[in-house]
Amino acid sequence: MLWFQKRSNGWIFIELLLVFGALVTILDALLVDAYTYFSPLGYNIENTYQLKLAKLNNKAPGYVPDSLASLSETESLLKLMENIRQNPEVEEVCATFFSCPYSFGNSWTSIIPTEEADTTKVNEQSFQVRRVTPEYFKVFSVLDKEGKAVMPQLSGIQDAVVLSADLEKQFYNNQSAKGKRVSFSGQANGNQVAAVCQPIRPSDYEISAPCFYQVLTGKMLEEYINYFGAQQAELCVRMKHSKTKEDINYFLEEMGDRLNSGNLYVYGVKKIEDQRSQLLSYRERNMKIKFSLMAFLLINVFFGIVGTFWLWTENRRGEIGLRMAIGSSKYSLYKYMNLEGICLFAFTLPFIILFMLNMAYFDIMDTIRLPLSLWRFCITIGSAWLLLAGMITLGIWIPARKATNLAPAEALHYE
Amino acid sequence: MIKQHIKQAVQLLKENRLVSCISIIGTALSIAMVMVVVLLFQIQLSGYYPEYNRDRMLYIQGTEATSKNGTDTNRGGMSAEVVRECFYSLKTPEKVTAIYSENLPISLPNKRLFKEYNVKYTDDGFWSIFNFRFITGKPFEKADFLSGIPKAVITDQTARELFGTTDVLGKNIVINFINYSITGVVKEVSRAARDSYAEAWIPYTTKDQLMNLQYADGISGGFNICILAKHSKDFASIRTELKQQTARYNEGKQLYKVGFAENPISRLDIAMGSEGFRKVDYKDFILETGSLVLFMLLVPALNLIGVTQASIQRRKSEVGLRKAFGATYSKLVSQILYENLVITLLGGALGLLFSFGLLNISKDFLLENNTMINSDMLFQPGTFVATLFFVLLMNFLSAGIPALRIAKQPIVEALKGNE
Q1: Which domain range does residue A309 map to?
Q2: What is the pLDDT of residues B208-235, one digit of tens each?
Q3: Can you tell me the ipTM of this complex?
Q4: What's the predicted TM-score (pTM) here?
Q5: Which residues pair with A236 in a beta bridge?
Q6: Do B33 and A296 touch (CB under 8 A)?
């Protein structure tokens, strides 16, 4: 039967094939995105804000030339942090240098274990370093591998570092890194690993990469502040309760002069979640475009099926009438038409599997974030198939209803 | 004759309402999707408030400072010194402006506020390159700029938010603890006009940190440049003159040299997705966008082919008869194309309307947040020409194949009316 209709069915078959191929590609990309998006990030940015710092313009009232300043830059920054921490609405505040989550800043440095580890395996290699004060781990709720807080483990250790679990694995295989020493930026005696945190993903759409934290206290902190300037520090704050934009502006207005310290002052605030959506907007835009394209394709399939089967029923009204006259039920007629549609569609399946295998073979699919596996194939092909089959069923239903509502006598009239 | 075809086509449309509806809506949808792509490109390319002269503009988006021994490269904007030495000294262009933009809170003299506004630090040339509509007042002048007098131009929207009125000439706003007096209020700008968009504009000479940057031998900084040429024919000579200025400037530098990568780029380059450091080739753009557009036309065209094919099939005997009476091959093909054109034209008109709606719904993810879309961005001659072009393409795709096929059939076959 299908074969006899090949003229008009041919086009719809090509369309189904094209759309199926496009759907599978889009769904596969979306699956990988979703899978990555929902795995743990390694930190928590809920209710966190970045306070933006600046130094007074030399024409601004209250400007003190550096030579006359009573507080050093480090002292100004620490005083500012203390002022903020004392506010009862603030849970914790920390300072970071180009290391705030979802900021564009990233620093890389080479790091190597100083003792025992299998040095033949470990080449000196660069990893991302985040330079943070100890409170960072509380502000962003970074936990160690066992799920315990990292911050208490840092107390009393000078120039501590915290490795991410994947860096620990790379350096020490399955041994624990805690208490061992690593050396970076060419320092000879090395720094003590105070804790090992859970794997850190740079953003929601990336997988975790080995990285480490350099914990800044005392002399080291002062060195960095003098090098970069205190206004380059990112002050990150975790509030006790969630706040709207107006609330947080009001909070800063209330703080008033306590946000000034020497020539340093807080000039603005950014919710880290907003910064996140800004940074990810490109990805989200991309995803929405994919969804729109998918909707467009599905609607087209619907139209195509309605059109084709409509003409089909028009051309065979006589046959349908005859069938009904000799007692075939509406339901069985509908079933018959549907079967034809689905059969037509089923023929596309082998082509699609071939297409997928081809894609996999030429490594066009994203295999870094999610390795190829049978379940990935099944989910993408399965969901694309279900979506299309749904559309086809819906598309056939309309002409079928019209055809079967015809009185048998009238239908026979066409014969 | 054409009138006859059209009459016949309308008759056919009425005969099979559902299929006609589907064909028209299907065409409309696909034209709408394609037109959204076209409109997005057009918003990037064509001129509207306040960037009317985009066809005469060149852009420097990004500067490269490379150490003379080649070990260190710093990418970003340029310093005020580079702006002065390499750009203000250009002779060929009509005007040049340097722009640095930042999100900053604007406060009132008696109240410190934290709501942020987009502020552009710029010069007096800015106001002659972009044609702002001033509701009251005027821009800050060259003298103000040169001596760093804190004056500001703000939008009507900003004025209303801060003061509750647009009658704010001479009043003060505070940015980074400095009092700026308002010299003008302009009508607000769409974010799509990326180079001129801001909520407040102030002379960059009022920010000492911007004036005295010392990164990379005094080359790196925050500025980007817009150049207005007297005529787009001058682009090549402006590029040459800029090269000479840059070479002269670099000779005087000890440690670093300045470079502008792919800059200056034109508006067409930007519309095709080029940036200062990465130029998109014309060929790549056409290949990439073209294949997307073709795909969006092809899928619905396949639908239409099926439908046209079936309806022609039923009229086989008619075709055979006409052939027997001596209708030529080309006449038959054009008859079918004309008849189909009625469907695609109806679909095209509907699709253009759809695309405006679709763009409005999806602007949040297609354009930057809170971008206003004005009618003068959409109603450009290009919009209609493009629609017509895609309608004809669609028509050809969907009716061409069945038409060619049936016209080729031998008379006897056709007369029999067999499948």
Answers
A1: 6-40+279-414
A2: 878 877 777 888 888 999 999 998 899 9
A3: 0.73
A4: 0.76
A5: A50, A94
A6: yes
